[in-house]
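Example 9 (inverse folding). The structure is encoded as follows.
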């Protein structure tokens, strides 16, 4: 699943570690999300969307919808 997490994080001027602390996850989780090696739980997806004041769909893109 593709995402804009790294872009949004950098726009907000925070590090992976800072975002991880805010969301109570590990820095490795943020890195794995940004590199599309991990799909978030629905709870984590909502936390990210709430933090960045966007919808989940504005962060995560379903590759099947590109067809």
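The amino acid assigned to each position is listed next.
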């Amino acid at each position: 699943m593709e995402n804009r997490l790294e872009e949004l994080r950098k726009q907000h001027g925070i590090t992976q570690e800072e975002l991880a602390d805010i969301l109570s996850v590990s820095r490795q989780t943020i890195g794995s999300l940004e590199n599309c090696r991990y799909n978030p739980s629905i709870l984590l997806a909502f936390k990210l969307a709430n933090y960045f004041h966007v919808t989940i769909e504005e962060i995560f893109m379903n590759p099947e919808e590109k067809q």
